[in-house]
Specification:
Chain lengths: ~260, ~290
């Protein structure tokens, strides 16, 4: 960020604490998310990534501290965020087509008629499904799709809400290795218009796609840039092997050795 | 069997069965996909407390039983929202206490001897015409509410968290659903008994779920299956002089197992076809050559 006047952040988190059964899950978290951001939340499983996303969505209430989304409490702004949950295997036997799942993204749109679906709804749904290359599966039952296809359906559902920010929780869990590069290219393309926050324990992505990184492990260390510094690893106990193992791109900053 | 239809009681039984089937097909679908069969069973049993209360206090059956059931249902829905992990225990308690209360209140009512069997299995062959009209109104009301909130109910049932993010009143919808279950149960128990209510709310929607591609189709298929089971059951009970409610349930049970077996056979057939068809014909061709 430059020294010029910064625009108001989309999301502003100040001294946030969250505890569960007296155990702190998140400690004194403060950072901002600005327009155009592509932020990766990395950290070990159980480090609080999903909790942080759910607090920003207003699904969980922080124990202390303040969260403002578009300048208002998260609950009043949640409809402006597209959310792709981690678990795409919920309700596999539910009698619903892929298209009807995506159509859920059009639920309760402002100014929308109460019953049925408008031409606008259909157009948005088709656009989102074509973008995710699942329009061909629109009439399939959701349970008949593979994990990766179902993941795309859930992302299309989030896109159909016309979000200003997109939250993705472990989005690559169900996508095979070949599909992942293509998937991140797509996110990069989406990022031209909307801010993206992506929680992942997979850091392969970081250097070439995201703009900033926050390591989440009870505490949050926000780093404005796509590298992970030694300080982050030491102070916040991000497991090093997780970050350094099997990556095509170098994520760790190259250190000057004496 | 046209000669059967000459009897008014039989015509009323058929109409009652058809209306019950529609209500159970629609509400039962929501019960099955929301996995609240246990809660619905609890409401149906606890309603007996309301029946006892209404008779003991000398209130009208509908007002007494419906308000008691609604209160029990609201309490159970609140517990489910607040503490889902303890919900089954507390629902079980309300289930048992409600029913015991009904039995004691009826004991204390002088000169009243209620037949518990008619409460369990109903008396579809003695439905008066006034109750048919009440059922018709309930049926229209439920169809109206479900139609109006269809998109919300669908989203809530599939992914409540997402529905909440989109601004759907998920808690309100859950109370509304539980209230509709309570009203349906009280109305239908008098006619077909609580066991048949639970059977028709679960078996036909469960079968329908296997074949339906949308929630509304599941409701339609469930209602249709329900009607078939009711008509066949009524016919058999008339022909062999058997208890009607229990016969209908046994027919539904047979339908359930046939559907189960069919599904297994289809599955086996599909995997047989998959085995016969080589997954990579090109590779195989190359190997041969």
């Amino acid at each position: 960020m430059s020294f010029h006047m910064e625009p108001a952040p989309l999301i502003e988190i100040r001294n946030l604490w969250y505890g569960f059964n007296g155990q702190p899950v998140l400690k004194d978290v403060s950072f901002n998310i600005f327009k155009g951001e592509f932020l990766a939340l990395i950290g070990p499983n159980g480090g609080g990534k999903t909790t942080l996303l759910k607090i920003m969505l207003g699904l969980l209430r922080p124990t202390h501290g303040s969260v403002r989304v578009f300048g208002v409490p998260p609950k009043s702004a949640s409809h402006r965020i597209g959310y792709v949950p981690q678990d795409v295997h919920i309700n596999k036997n539910f009698p619903i087509s892929a298209m009807d799942v995506v159509m859920m993204g059009r639920l309760r749109m402002t100014g929308k008629k109460r019953l049925g679906h408008s031409g606008d709804d259909l157009a948005s749904v088709q656009e989102a499904m074509e973008k995710m290359e699942i329009w061909g599966y629109r009439n399939r039952r959701i349970g008949e799709l593979s994990g990766g296809q179902r993941q795309r359906v859930f992302i299309a559902r989030a896109l159909a809400t016309c979000p200003e920010i997109l939250f993705l929780d472990e989005p690559t869990a169900s996508i095979d290795k070949e599909g992942q590069g293509q998937f991140y290219d797509l996110l990069k393309h989406l990022n031209e218009k909307i801010a993206i926050v992506l929680a992942s324990h997979d850091v392969m992505i970081i250097s070439s796609y995201v703009k900033s990184v926050a390591c989440v492990n009870k505490e949050v260390h926000y780093h404005d840039g796509a590298e992970i510094t030694d300080a982050m690893l030491d102070m916040y106990a991000c497991p090093v092997e997780m970050i350094a193992h099997g990556m095509p791109h170098r994520v760790l900053k190259i250190h000057k050795e004496n | 069997m046209p000669e059967v239809l000459q009897f008014e009681f039989m015509r009323n039984a058929i109409v009652a069965g058809l209306l019950t089937s529609i209500i159970c097909g629609v509400i039962g679908t929501l019960v099955v996909v929301n996995r609240i069969v246990f809660l619905s069973g609890a409401i149906a049993h606890a309603a007996y407390g309301g029946i006892g209360l209404a008779i003991f206090m000398g209130w009208s059956y509908l007002i007494g039983a419906m308000s008691f059931s609604l209160a029990c249902a609201a309490a159970m829905a609140a517990v489910m929202l607040k503490a889902r992990h303890r919900a089954d225990t507390i629902i079980g308690v309300i289930w048992a206490v409600g029913m015991a209360l009904g039995v004691i209140l009826l004991d204390l009512t002088p000169g009243y001897h209620v037949d518990l069997m008619s409460y369990l299995f109903g008396s579809i062959l003695t439905v008066p015409e006034t109750e048919l009209f009440q059922m018709l109104f309930l049926c229209i009301g439920i169809l109206g509410v479900v139609f109006f909130f269809y998109n919300d109910f669908l989203a809530m049932s599939y992914d409540a968290e997402f529905a909440e993010l989109r601004g759907a009143p998920v808690k309100g919808l859950q109370f509304l659903l539980v209230a509709m279950i309570a009203l349906s149960v009280v109305m239908i128990i008098r006619v077909v008994g609580l066991i048949l209510v639970i059977a028709l709310m679960t078996i036909p929607p469960y079968i329908a779920e296997q074949y339906a591609t949308s929630l509304v189709r599941m409701m339609a298929i469930g209602s249709f299956l329900s009607m078939m089971f009711t008509l066949v059951g009524l016919g058999l009970s008339y022909h062999f002089n058997l208890t009607s409610g229990a016969t209908i349930i046994l027919v539904a049970g047979v339908g359930f197992f046939i559907s189960f077996a069919l599904k297994k056979m289809l599955h086996a057939l599909n995997s047989q076809i998959a085995m016969d068809t080589p997954a990579y014909p090109k590779t195989e061709g190359r190997n041969k050559g």
